[in-house]
């Protein structure tokens, strides 16, 4: 998704802006650009290749400046072309970078056309540029304030003007923006990461805030125009580019980091007290009568898995909703529900909007399960539980997912205790099983060579089915999502019992059917479902627990999982599916860490 960096300094700031863009690259983008202010108007360089290519252009033309804005763009309005890449200009005097989507851009465009503004891009951003220009009467800050009042939608913007060689104006609503304070130089950015090392402190802007960045300081006002101070905090040093080590891709590295990430996420206590979720958790957990989980994509599948745990371990009614559906649905609010948002980034626009929607309906008990301590989501909820996956760079989520599962299992056990359904001995057994997970995952990761052999079959396929039952149905969904997003093979997942209600019609010799076969109460039913597939000529690829007695046969390929993992079985069982997707994608030569059309954190609707 789009990224922003901007600065006002005394030195040539272009290298800092380029470095900032480089650090935001992992978020996914399809074009990038940078502008500096000169007395003849802003100058810009743009690229539809990569930030490295933008950097080459900068060196070639000796592109320098003390005030500038830079951007990585993930196309929403208009294709990924040079013309649509930011910074976008108005009338040769003003330049803007923008994250988010302006919903009323069509109407504004018409009005501005009538004022003889000429549009040279297909972006909604150009509307903001011309709007600010049309309102500008010598005071850039005032023009931006006036303009944002007319915008509907989400935005974080940075604006510069040729009349103000040492000023940059920023604003945010529905899209994150931070202000960075350096030594005689100040910044804006999508995230502290982009300016760490140059800025010593940062503040997170709040909804509707507008800032004016100058050499000597920063002016900040809220949506009413009242002066505000937004709690500055120290910026953690930038850790440098994350090394790949012996791995080919970040996704592979992150799959192999899961044992460590999980062991860091499991609380290092002998008993799970509500305080693990925040000071108020004890009171909150005693007062709730249900759980509502809101999330998107892979995080939604973590929520679906957690429903089984919350209902069986904590005996608490649980609903799981896709955030982008919930936010627009007329639902019946329950003030006694605990609203749990699950998110790697904590910045996903739909999940944030769903959370705010729930809060606006009087559902005040909220908990974020999140991987980013400084994210908007963590700041918005009453309770929090941080996963300790560390930064995830591969667009396809892997270690964030398994650590979310751990966090949600800890929640189920904790709520089970509070509600009297988990006694001390059961808790000790659950904690024991959790602590065994890293070793269990290491044993599963050792299956990689067998999975690579299977991936040779998948490389040539264009479709695949994934089957699971019960707790492993969401894992089948996640396996199918992983395969489609990075290998571009069309994959669908079904609860195995649903096969005969429709999808069985798809099964032919050409259709690989990946089956998750843990040794649980549904095993015999699953074996019957496998026979239904085999009888139609489908080829079955089974990940079977060692004690299931499922054997390789004609058209049945089996990889044995090292042991049976009980209630936590979804966690080890998702790992071979991640590896299968990864090696199939490598075989097909796709851009594994940056799959086409996708971005790491989806900050637009
Ligand atoms: C898929 C994937 C996405 C994210 C989804 C939500 O591999 O990563 O489906 O899970 O975009 O993102 P977060 O968890 O950041 O809210």
UniProtKB/TrEMBL annotation:
<feature type="domain" description="SIS">
    <location>
        <begin position="281"/>
        <end position="421"/>
    </location>
</feature>
<feature type="active site" description="For Fru-6P isomerization activity">
    <location>
        <position position="600"/>
    </location>
</feature>
<dbReference type="GO" id="GO:0005975">
    <property type="term" value="P:carbohydrate metabolic process"/>
</dbReference>
<keyword id="KW-0315">Glutamine amidotransferase</keyword>
<feature type="domain" description="SIS">
    <location>
        <begin position="454"/>
        <end position="595"/>
    </location>
</feature>
<keyword id="KW-0963">Cytoplasm</keyword>
<dbReference type="InterPro" id="IPR017932">
    <property type="entry name" value="GATase_2_dom"/>
</dbReference>
<dbReference type="InterPro" id="IPR035466">
    <property type="entry name" value="GlmS/AgaS_SIS"/>
</dbReference>
<feature type="domain" description="Glutamine amidotransferase type-2">
    <location>
        <begin position="2"/>
        <end position="216"/>
    </location>
</feature>
<keyword id="KW-0677">Repeat</keyword>
<protein>
    <recommendedName>
        <fullName>Glutamine--fructose-6-phosphate aminotransferase [isomerizing]</fullName>
        <ecNumber>2.6.1.16</ecNumber>
    </recommendedName>
</protein>
<dbReference type="InterPro" id="IPR001347">
    <property type="entry name" value="SIS_dom"/>
</dbReference>
<dbReference type="GO" id="GO:0097367">
    <property type="term" value="F:carbohydrate derivative binding"/>
</dbReference>
<feature type="active site" description="Nucleophile; for GATase activity">
    <location>
        <position position="2"/>
    </location>
</feature>
<dbReference type="GO" id="GO:0005829">
    <property type="term" value="C:cytosol"/>
</dbReference>
<dbReference type="InterPro" id="IPR047084">
    <property type="entry name" value="GFAT_N"/>
</dbReference>
<comment type="subunit">
    <text>Homodimer.</text>
</comment>
<keyword id="KW-0808">Transferase</keyword>
<dbReference type="InterPro" id="IPR005855">
    <property type="entry name" value="GFAT"/>
</dbReference>
<dbReference type="Pfam" id="PF01380">
    <property type="entry name" value="SIS"/>
</dbReference>
<comment type="function">
    <text>Catalyzes the first step in hexosamine metabolism, converting fructose-6P into glucosamine-6P using glutamine as a nitrogen source.</text>
</comment>
<keyword id="KW-0032">Aminotransferase</keyword>
<dbReference type="GO" id="GO:0006047">
    <property type="term" value="P:UDP-N-acetylglucosamine metabolic process"/>
</dbReference>
<dbReference type="GO" id="GO:0046349">
    <property type="term" value="P:amino sugar biosynthetic process"/>
</dbReference>
<dbReference type="GO" id="GO:0006487">
    <property type="term" value="P:protein N-linked glycosylation"/>
</dbReference>
<dbReference type="GO" id="GO:0006002">
    <property type="term" value="P:fructose 6-phosphate metabolic process"/>
</dbReference>
<dbReference type="InterPro" id="IPR046348">
    <property type="entry name" value="SIS_dom_sf"/>
</dbReference>
<dbReference type="GO" id="GO:0004360">
    <property type="term" value="F:glutamine-fructose-6-phosphate transaminase (isomerizing) activity"/>
</dbReference>
<dbReference type="InterPro" id="IPR035490">
    <property type="entry name" value="GlmS/FrlB_SIS"/>
</dbReference>
<dbReference type="Pfam" id="PF13522">
    <property type="entry name" value="GATase_6"/>
</dbReference>
<dbReference type="InterPro" id="IPR029055">
    <property type="entry name" value="Ntn_hydrolases_N"/>
</dbReference>
């Amino acid at each position: 998704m789009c990224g922003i960096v901007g600065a006002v300094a005394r030195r040539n700031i272009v290298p800092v802006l380029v470095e900032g863009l480089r650090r935001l690259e992992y978020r996914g983008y399809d074009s990038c650009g940078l502008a500096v202010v000169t007395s003849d108007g802003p100058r810009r360089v743009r690229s539809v290749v990569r930030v490295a290519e933008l950097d080459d252009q900068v060196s070639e033309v000796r592109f320098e400046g003390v005030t500038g804005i830079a951007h990585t763009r993930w196309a929403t309005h208009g294709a990924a072309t040079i013309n649509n890449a930011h910074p976008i200009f108005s009338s040769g005097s003003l330049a803007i970078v923008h994250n988010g989507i302006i919903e009323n851009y069509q109407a504004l465009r018409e009005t501005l056309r009538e004022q003889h503004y000429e549009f040279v891009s297909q972006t909604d951003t150009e509307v903001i540029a011309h709007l600010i220009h049309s309102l500008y009467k010598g005071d850039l800050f005032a023009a931006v304030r006036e303009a944002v009042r007319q915008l509907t939608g989400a935005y974080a913007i940075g604006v510069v003007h040729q009349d103000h060689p040492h000023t940059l104006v920023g604003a945010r609503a529905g899209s994150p923006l931070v202000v960075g304070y350096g030594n005689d130089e100040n910044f804006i950015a999508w995230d502290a990461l982009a300016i760490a090392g140059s800025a010593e402190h940062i503040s997170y802007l709040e909804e509707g805030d507008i800032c004016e960045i100058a050499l000597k300081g920063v002016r900040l006002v809220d949506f009413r125009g009242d002066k505000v101070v937004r709690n500055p905090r120290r910026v953690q040093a930038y850790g440098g580019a994350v090394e790949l080590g012996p791995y080919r891709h970040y996704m592979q590295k992150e799959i192999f980091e899961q044992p460590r990430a999980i062991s860091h996420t499991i609380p290092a206590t002998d008993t799970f007290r509500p305080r693990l979720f925040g000071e108020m958790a004890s009171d909150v957990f005693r007062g709730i009568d249900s759980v509502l989980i809101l999330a998107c994509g892979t995080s939604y599948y973590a929520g679906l898995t957690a429903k089984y745990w919350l209902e069986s371990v904590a005996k608490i009614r649980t609903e799981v909703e896709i955030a982008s559906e919930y936010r627009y649905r007329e639902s019946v609010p329950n003030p006694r529900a605990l609203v749990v948002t699950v998110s790697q980034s904590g910045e996903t626009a739909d999940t944030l909007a769903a959370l705010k929607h729930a809060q606006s309906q009087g559902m005040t008990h909220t908990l974020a399960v999140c991987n980013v301590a400084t994210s908007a989501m963590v700041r918005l909820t009453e309770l929090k539980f941080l996963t300790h996956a560390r930064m995830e760079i591969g667009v396809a989520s892997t270690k964030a997912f398994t650590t979310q599962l751990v966090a949600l299992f800890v929640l189920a056990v904790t709520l089970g205790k509070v509600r009297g359904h988990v006694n001390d001995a059961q808790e000790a057994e659950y904690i024991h099983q959790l602590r065994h997970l890293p070793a269990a995952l290491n044993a599963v990761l050792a299956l990689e060579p067998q999975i690579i052999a299977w991936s040779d079959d998948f490389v040539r396929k264009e479709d695949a089915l994934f089957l699971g039952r019960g707790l492993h149905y969401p894992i089948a969904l996640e396996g199918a999502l992983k395969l489609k997003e990075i290998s571009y093979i069309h994959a669908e997942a079904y609860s195995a019992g649903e096969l005969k209600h429709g999808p069985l019609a798809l099964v032919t010799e050409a259709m690989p059917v990946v089956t998750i076969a843990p040794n649980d109460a549904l095993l015999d039913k699953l074996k019957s479902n496998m026979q239904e597939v085999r009888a139609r000529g489908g080829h079955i690829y089974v990940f079977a627990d060692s004690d299931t007695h499922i054997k390789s046969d004609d058209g049945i390929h089996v990889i044995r999982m090292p042991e049976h993992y009980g209630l936590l079985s979804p966690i080890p069982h998702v790992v071979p599916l991640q590896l299968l997707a990864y090696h199939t994608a490598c075989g097909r030569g796709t851009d594994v860490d940056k799959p086409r059309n996708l971005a790491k954190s989806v900050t637009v609707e």
